[in-house]
Each structure stands twice: as C-alpha cells, then as structure tokens.
Design brief:
single chain, 69 residues, alpha+beta, five-stranded mixed β-sheet
C-alpha cells in the first residue's frame, strides 16, 4: 500500500514569524495569506512551497485546540 499526502497543516501562533522561519531555514516560497471562516471557525493560512512539496502554516483564531473533539 502506498500512502500519499496532498499537504500537511502546521498550526502556529504567529503566522508571519512561521513564514519567515521556513523561508530562512528551508528556502521555501510562500503563497498569499488566505482567510477561511466558517460557522465561527476562523483561520488564516499560507501555503509554503519547497520544490514539488508543499505544506500549510495555519493560524487559528477564537478557539482552543482542546475545544475540538
């Protein structure tokens, strides 16, 4: 069985600081900041690219991780 991922989400407290870190350490490029808001669940995220690989840095607002079942 082959397991593939389309991307990985990394939750961060400071989106700008995380983008700066991954640009510096992994030489990633970044998408524009995007906002996703649904039923009071609000996140801002940026997709980071490194060659053919990508991952998303996600900063949540207005909830705590322990609130999610």
């Amino acid at each position: 069985m082959e397991l593939k991922f389309s991307h990985v989400d990394i939750l961060v407290k400071d989106l700008d600081a995380a983008v700066s870190y991954y640009r510096r350490v992994l030489s990633c490029t970044a998408s524009e900041r995007k906002v996703w808001n649904r039923n009071g669940f609000h996140v801002e995220y940026i997709t980071m690219f490194n060659g053919n690989e990508k991952f998303m840095l996600v900063q949540p607002f207005g909830w705590k991780s322990e609130d999610i079942d």
